[in-house]
Design goal:
Shape: elongated
Number of helices: 3
Radius of gyration: 20 Å
Order of helices and strands: HHEEEH
Strand order of the largest sheet: 1-2-3
């Protein structure tokens, strides 16, 4: 009987961990979204539908280096919030992203 209780207890722990992981993911999504919106000075009217959000995201993705987040590339941020990638400094995305 005690082994069954142990299994049930471990299953409850697993479920609790799954819930914590989902909450952490939600927090990351929210924080990342807020940071991108404020950093790019996006107008919330541009983001009023899923289609518009997808359009903005596609523009951002198209203007980033394709290997930006590969483990083999070193990315670091300087004091001005620009980033260095492959010895090139990027201080902002293509200006058309901010005004579209």
């Amino acid at each position: 009987m005690s082994s069954l209780k142990n299994i049930q207890s471990k299953m409850e722990q697993i479920e609790k961990l799954k819930k914590e992981i989902e909450e952490a993911k939600t927090e990351i999504h929210t924080t990342l979204g807020k940071k991108l919106i404020t950093s790019l000075d996006l107008d919330y009217e541009l983001l009023s539908s899923k289609k518009e959000i997808h359009t903005v995201v596609d523009k951002i993705v198209k203007n980033l280096p394709s290997d930006l987040f590969n483990d083999s590339n070193e990315i670091y941020f300087n004091k001005e919030d620009s980033y260095i990638h492959d010895d090139k400094e990027y201080s902002e995305l293509n200006p058309e992203l901010q005004n579209s």
